[in-house]
Amino acid sequence: MKEVVLRERKVKVSFREIPRLVKEEVTFLKEVLSDPRTPRASKWLLSLALSYALSPMDLIPDFIPIVGHLDDLIVIPALVFLALRMVPRKVISEHRGKRTVCT
Predict the structure, then answer these.
(1) Contact 94, 86 (CB under 8 A)
(2) DSSP secondary structure string, the chain?
(3) CA dist., res. 46 & res. 28, Å (int)
(4) What are 94-103's pLDDT values in tens digits?
(5) What is the CA radius of gyration of the chain?
(6) Which sign does the torsion angle of CA 47, 53, 55, 60 carry?
(7) Does residue 101 contact residue 9 with C-beta atoms inside 8 Å?
(8) What is the pLDDT of residues 44-99, one digit of tens each?
(9) β-bridge partners, 6
């Protein structure tokens, strides 16, 4: 088991649960993206993060050791973080409340 900070609280997560958590987060982001109350700038940032994650193009090529993958670990979460900062708290809490975080 590995202890991680998840949504402002510590949760013990096994490596088997990580794919489920990723799936829940992607579903949450899709719901926020499709909500009409989400600001347009936030939708652009979430779309940019998704396209950057799926694109074969990178700011720094992945064949460069360590630094190549490090840009993916910094750019995508930063775009998602900025996008979610612009979304009203009510929208986030509604979509987070639809599912349980961890058991």
Answers:
(1) no
(2) -EEEEETTEEEEE-TTTHHHHHHHHHHHHHHHHH-TTS-HHHHHHHHHHHHHHH-S--SS-TTSTTHHHHHHHHHHHHHHHHHHHHS-HHHHHHHHHTS----
(3) 12
(4) 998 876 544 4
(5) 15
(6) positive
(7) no
(8) 999 999 888 888 777 788 788 888 888 888 889 999 999 999 999 999 999 988 76
(9) 9
10 contacts 3 by C-beta, under 8 angstroms: yes
Residue type, 48: L
First to last CA, the chain: 14
pTM: 0.73
CA distances from 88 to 30, 75, 78, 82 (A): 15, 22, 18, 12
- Cβ atoms within 10 Å, residue 95: 19
Cα(32)–Cα(38) distance, integer angstroms: 7
